[in-house]
Design a protein that fits this description.
HIT family, subunit A; alpha+beta; 2 helices; about 20% helix
Length: about 110
């Protein structure tokens, strides 16, 4: 069964895109937790960061660089932003498809949870 992110990547479900290239897609979260909340998702399914392997290294680096580029494109570079990757139920993971949250547009408190 496809995850919701796979359905978005395959254009079976519409989404508001912020970025797309051959390796990943970035979309605005439908339930934003900050004024800017974008998800950067690899097109190749990796269920979670804890399941990634050495062969995923280049893709993981690409996701982080894409997240930074999206943050810059959306005007967050000067004020700052947060990048979050959830892993497992207690980590807040709700979709078993690795994705990077880019959050910004307001001061973000610490600790986050």
């Amino acid at each position: 069964m496809k995850t919701i992110f796979q359905k978005i990547i395959d254009r079976e479900i519409p989404a508001q895109l912020a970025h797309e290239d051959e390796h990943c897609i970035a979309l605005h979260d439908i339930n934003p937790q900050a004024p800017v909340h974008v998800l950067v998702i690899p097109k190749r399914l990796i269920p979670r960061i804890a399941g990634a392997g050495a062969d995923d290294q280049a893709l993981l680096g690409h996701l982080l660089l894409s997240a930074a580029a999206v943050a810059k494109k959306l005007g967050l570079e000067g004020s700052g932003f947060r990048i979050v990757i959830n892993n497992g139920r207690d980590g807040g993971e709700t979709v078993p498809h690795l994705h990077v949250h880019v959050l910004g547009g307001r001061p973000l408190g610490w600790p986050p949870g």
